[in-house]
Amino acid sequence: LRATKMAGIEKIRAIVADIDKNRVRELSLIENIQRENLNSIELAVSLQELIDEHKLTHDELSNIVKKSRSYITNTLRLLQLDEYVKDKLMQNKISYGHAKALVGLDISEQQKITDSIVGQKLSVRDVEEMATKLKSDAKKTEKTAYNEKKLKLSNLVDALDLIDGLRVRKTHSSITIFFENQTQIDKISASLTRE
Fold it and tell me: Which tens digit of pLDDT belongs to each residue from 131-173?
């Protein structure tokens, strides 16, 4: 309407709808999402606003904006990225594909890889391979830490087994001790308070 007034056009075709403010906001967000020049972060923010304001599921939102559910989910995951990475994505220094591959990495890794993308012109495939390797290494480190924790638990169980008649049950992260008499409790207390 504003544009036609500025252009001096006196009559236009229009449909006037009687809708409430919430519906206007929803339609405004949907129209914003369907703009072609929207960057991935702006799109993700708009999708999240629709979900928050209208309590939509990813499937429901997918039907409204005519995008696949996986596209909605992957776009929303971009909001988890570090601000530095988001900024490079908004400046078109990295692509949606690059950014998608960086989700789930820690902040310093995201920033280093982003700088490599910009400086070395890395392909999306290169970044996906780097991210997969880093995520795999992180899982191995986590598993090693868990195993070390488990070994220390095993040592404690072995020490407890040395107390006559004491029954001990171990799970991956806890120990249950079954006492039969006060003597067993006193022995554990004495060993814990020993210097």
Answer: 999 888 877 777 766 666 666 677 777 778 777 778 888 877 7
Query: What pTM was estimated for this model as a whole?
Result: 0.58
Beta strands in the chain (DSSP E): 167-170, 175-178
Long-range contacts of 38-42 (CB under 8 A, 24+ apart): 39/89, 39/90, 39/92, 40/75, 40/78, 40/89, 40/96, 40/99, 41/78, 41/79, 41/86, 41/89, 41/90, 42/90
In angstroms, the CA 122 to CA 114 distance is 9
Element at 192 (helix H, strand E): helix 182-193
Sign (positive/negative) of CA torsion 183, 184, 188, 189?
negative
Do 175 and 164 form a contact (C-beta atoms < 8 A)?
Answer: no
